[in-house]
Amino acid sequence: MAKHRGPILLDNNAIGDAVDLGVWNALIGAYRGQLETVREVEREAGTYFRELSDPATLMASLKLVQVHDVTPQERNNLAVRTQGIALDPGERDLWANALGRKPGWILCGPDKASMRAAVRLGLAEKLVSLEELLQNAGLSTKGLPDNHTNKWLRRVVGELIVEEILK
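^ thats the sequence. predicted structure below, dont judge the formating
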C-alpha cells in the first residue's frame, strides 16, 4: 500500500507502542498533520507518558496530533451499533468519532474489541497496522510486537468476520 494521505486515527495502544519502539516522533513527522485521535485517548496517552523518562517532551508531542471531542449522541449512536462489544473508553470514543467522518480515514488500533467493532460496523477495511504505517513512511519496524503486524491484523480480522457471520 502507498503512504496514506488522509486522516489516520490512533488509539492509545498504537501511540504507546510507537513511543516504546522509539518511532513516535518519526511517525508524527512522516504523517505531519494527518495523525488524529480523541480526547479520551489523549488522556490515556498522557497518563502513560507521565510514567516515562521524558514526560514533558512526550506530552508536548500530543499537541502535534489533532484531538477531537466526542458528544454523548455520538457515543449513543455507536453503542446501538456495537451492542455487546466491550470497548474501553478510548476505543469507544475513537469509533464514535470515526462513524461521523467523511471517507478517506484509516484507524490504527490493535485491540481485539476495537477490531470486532470495525467488523460489526462493516469498516474492517479501515483498519491498518502500525507496521504498515511505519513501512509506508520508510521507518523501522524492528522490535514491533506481533499485534502491530499486518499478518496478525489480517488473521484476527478474518477470524472476527467468521465469528460475526456465525452469530
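The first helix runs from residue 12 to 20.
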